[in-house]
């Protein structure tokens, strides 16, 4: 093999030669998924309790309790990478422990300037004597410590995960089982308590991933759900911006490409755009000089003639400062491509000079 394996019709790179996949273990472990075969090395890492939004235990109510909604105005799946590019972009990153975060090995994108790793969480019912119905493909592994990269290669038709939203190319980072705790009762009249038992699977090879799944406790009833957290590769959305200078400056219009989420002032300054208007007066003191991006002067103000909906909404103070100019925005307080939007904008700099 010399480090290469042909799996599922696609080429997968491993760090060293390894034994072929155990097909019987795959079929039994993932499709039938006998949860009784717990593996001591991957005991569930923690257990916690959550309060459900409803006393009726069902996946829909549970999803609202455990899946945090991110403010977006678009379907983020439009930014998903093509499946043939995913295997080439997945990589692992090692981070050191600091006062702010715990270190470890985590998934990353090779082309991090253009691609980002997003996190999605999916909730679906758990059925006794039935597994996740997720087919896996190892694209990096063969290490003695079990580390590697394993991705979803498909879903079993009619399985519990079928239609959940999990996609080919996703990499599972965590699998949890949630159920009503023994102390809770639907007839108790109080908010229901849920118990979660979870295992981490991020940056594990195929065998270690399967072992982790098998370490989850067996299903005890039909009132249990899986909560599966996956990492997904997506391209960073962009905004195409035409920048216009006042005729008095004698500069030609330019076209810039900005990433959604960039601060407009910072993005323009780093690209060499001259922003500070010498005719501007500070809103707070009436004098000259900039506030260095604090939003208390108007020297970085721009006029948005097209694509204003691609910026975040102005807050009260900005609206008061620019009340006489509804098209103007403080570039230091403007976020391009707010809520992960893409599109085109036309912006005039130094609008007082037009």
UniProtKB/TrEMBL annotation:
<keyword id="KW-0411">Iron-sulfur</keyword>
<dbReference type="GO" id="GO:0051537">
    <property type="term" value="F:2 iron, 2 sulfur cluster binding"/>
</dbReference>
<dbReference type="InterPro" id="IPR001055">
    <property type="entry name" value="Adrenodoxin-like"/>
</dbReference>
<protein>
    <recommendedName>
        <fullName>2Fe-2S ferredoxin-type domain-containing protein</fullName>
    </recommendedName>
</protein>
<dbReference type="GO" id="GO:0046872">
    <property type="term" value="F:metal ion binding"/>
</dbReference>
<dbReference type="InterPro" id="IPR012675">
    <property type="entry name" value="Beta-grasp_dom_sf"/>
</dbReference>
<dbReference type="GO" id="GO:0005739">
    <property type="term" value="C:mitochondrion"/>
</dbReference>
<dbReference type="InterPro" id="IPR036010">
    <property type="entry name" value="2Fe-2S_ferredoxin-like_sf"/>
</dbReference>
<dbReference type="GO" id="GO:0140647">
    <property type="term" value="P:P450-containing electron transport chain"/>
</dbReference>
<keyword id="KW-0479">Metal-binding</keyword>
<keyword id="KW-0408">Iron</keyword>
<dbReference type="GO" id="GO:0009055">
    <property type="term" value="F:electron transfer activity"/>
</dbReference>
<keyword id="KW-0001">2Fe-2S</keyword>
């Amino acid at each position: 093999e010399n480090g290469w394996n042909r799996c599922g019709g696609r080429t997968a790179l491993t760090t060293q030669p390894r034994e072929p996949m155990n097909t019987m273990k795959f079929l039994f472990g993932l499709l039938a998924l006998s949860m009784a075969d717990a593996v001591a090395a991957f005991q569930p890492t923690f257990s916690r309790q959550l309060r459900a939004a409803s006393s009726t235990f069902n996946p829909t109510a549970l999803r609202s309790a455990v899946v945090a909604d991110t403010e977006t105005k678009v379907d983020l799946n439009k930014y998903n990478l093509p499946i043939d590019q995913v295997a080439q972009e997945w990589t692992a990153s090692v981070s050191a422990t600091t006062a702010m975060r715990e270190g470890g090995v985590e998934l990353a994108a090779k082309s991090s300037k253009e691609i980002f790793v997003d996190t999605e969480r999916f909730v679906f019912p758990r059925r006794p004597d039935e597994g996740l119905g997720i087919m896996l493909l190892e694209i990096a592994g063969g290490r003695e410590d079990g580390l590697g990269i394993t991705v979803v290669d498909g879903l079993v038709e009619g399985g519990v995960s079928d239609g959940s939203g999990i996609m080919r190319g996703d990499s599972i980072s965590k699998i949890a089982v949630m159920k009503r705790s023994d102390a809770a009762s639907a007839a108790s009249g109080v908010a229901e308590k849920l118990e979660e038992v979870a295992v981490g699977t991020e940056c594990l090879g195929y065998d270690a991933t399967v072992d982790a799944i098998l370490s989850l406790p067996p299903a005890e009833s039909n009132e249990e759900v899986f909560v599966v957290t996956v990492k997904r590769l997506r391209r960073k959305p962009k905004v195409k911006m035409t920048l216009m200078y006042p005729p008095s400056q004698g500069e030609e219009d330019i076209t810039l490409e900005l990433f959604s989420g960039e601060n407009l002032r910072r993005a323009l300054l780093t690209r060499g755009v001259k922003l500070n208007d010498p005719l501007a007066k500070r809103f707070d003191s009436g004098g000259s000089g900039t506030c260095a991006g604090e939003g208390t002067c108007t020297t970085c103000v721009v006029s948005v003639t097209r694509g204003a909906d691609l910026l975040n909404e102005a807050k009260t103070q900005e609206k008061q400062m620019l009340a006489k100019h509804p098209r103007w925005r403080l570039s230091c307080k403007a976020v391009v491509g707010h809520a992960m939007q893409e599109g085109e904008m036309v912006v005039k700099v130094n609008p007082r000079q037009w």
